[in-house]
Specification:
single chain; mainly alpha; elongated
């Protein structure tokens, strides 16, 4: 979608009054995914520094699935 002259990316729709903060059961998924797929484990790079944690990788994957980024 292209923006026309004078339009902006900012939405003028009102925000909901209260958004529920439901916890995502990532802890259960972390342990099962770490055992099944090597990608979701935390490893060290060539310089010996720790990479992203399993929790960070799983939450990023869920974000990609949810938003299609």
């Amino acid at each position: 979608a292209r923006l026309l002259r004078g339009e902006s990316y900012i939405s003028t729709a009102p925000l909901p009054e209260k958004v529920p903060n439901a916890p995502i059961p990532l802890c259960e998924n972390c342990s099962s995914l770490r055992g099944k797929c090597r990608y979701f484990t935390q490893r060290r790079n060539a310089a010996g520094l720790k990479g992203f944690s399993a929790y960070q990788k799983i939450s990023a994957a869920m974000r990609v699935i949810a938003y299609g980024v």
